[in-house]
Amino acid sequence: MELLSGAEMVVRSLRDEGVKYIYGYPGGALLHIYDALFKEHDLTHILVRHEQAATHMADGYARATGKAGVVLVTSGPGATNAVTGIATAYMDSIPMVVISGQVPSAAVGTDAFQETDMIGVSRPIVKHSFMVKHPSEIPEVIKKAFYLAESGRPGPVVVDIPKDMTNPTDKYEYSYPKKAKLRSYVPPTRGHSGQIRKAVEMLLAAKRPLLYSGGGVVLGHASSQLTELARALNLPVTNTLMGLGAYPGTDRQFLGMPGMHGSYTANLAMHHCDVLFAVGARFDDRVVNGVAKFCPTAKIIHIDIDPATISKTIKADIPIVGPVNSVLDDMLAELKSMNVKQDANVVNSWWKQIDEWRGNGRLFPYNEGDGSIIKPQAVIETLMDVTGGDAYITSDVGQHQMFAAQYYRFDKPNRWINSGGLGTMGFGFPAAMGIKLSFPDETVACVTGEGSIQMNIQELSTCLQYDLPVKIVNLNNGALGMVRQWQDMQYNSRYSHSYMESLPDFIKLAEAYGHVGIRITDLKDLKPKMEEAFALKDRLVFLDIQVDTSEHVYPMQIRDGAMRDMWLSKTERT
Amino acid sequence: MRHIISLLMENEPGALSRVIGLFSQRNYNIESLTVAATEDPTLSRLTLTTIGKEEVIEQITKNLNKLIEVVKLVDLSESAHIERELMLVKIKASGAQRAEVKRTADIFRGQIVDVTPSIYTVQLAGTTDKLDSFIQAVGAASIVEVVRSGVTGIARGDKVLSL
């Protein structure tokens, strides 16, 4: 058997796990590992400019590919800088393996230079974590880390490695395990057949059914089963912010996303449905609004791989614990074998009601104005048009995120990549980089705002070094738009610290980093200049688009109300 | 309602902190906690008591089960079980009080495990209620110090919590 040092084992284990990219930043505790990495040619290491960006890059990669992203950070500040990205991944159940350097084991607990209790700091935001106690256990720990990160309900796993575990002169026998064994961890593989039959029966008998699916369908690769079942039962469909693309966004049966900034149609349909069929969704507070008033007439079927998600906030009538793809497969099989047929007339009259709510215009209507100023909604519609609706779109957090979710109609899963749970500003740009690296031939755009983009703008430098020609679509309204919107609506327009007085010249900034900057201030230039930007396939283009500062995101649910209680504009409510 | 949750977990550093962290992180109540290794040195047995509505208890057990190091879990209060808590109490015992303390300890089947001219140290095992009653019977004025182990428990009959 081959003898390797701990540092070499880390690198070799990653290679044997099939890892292609590592996003990281070196430091004292990692020097042995970086030296081993220097001699390894099958792994590509991306040197970011800030560790937070490394985690978001790994996250973007994971969301687009379904495989765990790998992050390498040093002890102390390197580790703590990664915390926001780990929490982001945790909230959205994204598979990620974070390897953090640690001070030598003899120094642990002595307040040594660059020491942080990373296991302790990250404990509430990881699926699991390991501290390596002996170099020989490194391969097994790394195997377990990937297995835990990617199986069941995915999530980030931290592996903390004290520097002495990677000492280049201490060599041990190396073999990479084929399988990870954990007696205490058995993720479910099938749903309960009795529950599945009951769910199908309930759906067949429903008068006003609604399919509500979330990020679990994207993570669980169940988009095709979901689509098939929705079509077989002629179900109206709403996808949450995390679930967009799981059902085709341009399809007639799709009603838009639900919740705080969900469509009028989706929110009304949810309020009035009699059977709510929840698949891989978690009844987030940004979806359900007031818990006491939620879906007053609905029976609830809830499929999730995580039993703790079921009946957490909203009690399920038919809970089904299992992987969404296998449960939906079983439901489809059950449906085909059943003699009971759906009453088409009943469902058609439900559809008639929904079509009345929907009307003939946009799913999310807005006032186009007189054209003297660019509306942010129009930018997303143009982006959809210019990219043919088939780009990977990442976003940061705020109004632009909601506009992107509302107006870009995703027809495929894994194409819409945003921080839904934690709401991390600064996420979108590095996430886009992680995707572009894996899919160099695809169009990858980050929809952002002048607030969010500045939270990780240093990565423009990384993009030049590794040739990552993503497109940045900056909806520049000169204000922290979502904060300002709330201040407009609830604080009598007292704009407490929600605007920026000294924004940089983003064009010059992009140019200073070696990229292309294009400013758009006129509506008539919007489409041609955006086309010009996307035609520059091998360059990063920073599109700085001046948009209407006064624009709000609507609908906006009224706090603690029912699903149907919304503001539809500044003056009009349901 | 009060629940006694008993679990087996990997006897590894950090496992206990995950259990405790879960309670503070999710704002669950924790009344008492005991933990020690079992006859299988790779496993620890942890017993905790908590008070909450049924929905909350359901979430507590689900989230405990989700912790990777938790191998098996049972809510002892759901079926017949034996629960015990150990208490050591230092009680003022001089003059006429001395005989009275001894009598009360006998009634509660406690044992006097340490004696000085002015103090009796009483060891008492039983349910939380029984220990509370003893303290009440002795009277707060006589109590010098109380140490309680927290509740531990086991199911009645053939039911066992094992791998």
TrEMBL record, chain A:
Pathway: Amino-acid biosynthesis; L-isoleucine biosynthesis; L-isoleucine from 2-oxobutanoate: step 1/4; Amino-acid biosynthesis; L-valine biosynthesis; L-valine from pyruvate: step 1/4. Binds 1 thiamine pyrophosphate per subunit. One of its GO terms (molecular function) is magnesium ion binding. Its EC number is 2.2.1.6. Residues 396-545 form the Thiamine pyrophosphate enzyme TPP-binding domain. GO terms for biological process: isoleucine biosynthetic process; L-valine biosynthetic process. The keyword Metal-binding applies. Residues 5-117 form the Thiamine pyrophosphate enzyme N-terminal TPP-binding domain. It is an enzyme of class 2 (transferase). Its cofactor is thiamine diphosphate; Mg(2+). Residues 196-330 form the Thiamine pyrophosphate enzyme central domain. It catalyses: 2 pyruvate + H(+) = (2S)-2-acetolactate + CO2. One of its GO terms (cellular component) is acetolactate synthase complex. NCBIfam families: acolac_lg, PRK06466.1. PANTHER family: ACETOLACTATE SYNTHASE CATALYTIC SUBUNIT, MITOCHONDRIAL, THIAMINE PYROPHOSPHATE ENZYMES. Belongs to the TPP enzyme family. This is Acetolactate synthase. The lineage of its organism: Bacteria, Pseudomonadati, Pseudomonadota, Gammaproteobacteria, Pseudomonadales.
From TrEMBL, chain B:
It is an enzyme of class 2 (transferase). Its EC number is 2.2.1.6. CDD domains: ACT_AHAS (cd04878). GO terms for cellular component: cytosol. Residues 4-78 form the ACT domain. Transmembrane segments: none annotated. One of its GO terms (molecular function) is acetolactate synthase regulator activity. Pfam families: ACT_AHAS_ss, ALS_ss_C. Keywords: Amino-acid biosynthesis, Branched-chain amino acid biosynthesis, Transferase. Pathway: Amino-acid biosynthesis; L-valine biosynthesis; L-valine from pyruvate: step 1/4; Amino-acid biosynthesis; L-isoleucine biosynthesis; L-isoleucine from 2-oxobutanoate: step 1/4. It comes from the Bacteria. NCBIfam families: acolac_sm, PRK11895.1. Catalyzes the conversion of 2 pyruvate molecules into acetolactate in the first common step of the biosynthetic pathway of the branched-amino acids such as leucine, isoleucine, and valine. Belongs to the acetolactate synthase small subunit family. This is Acetolactate synthase small subunit.
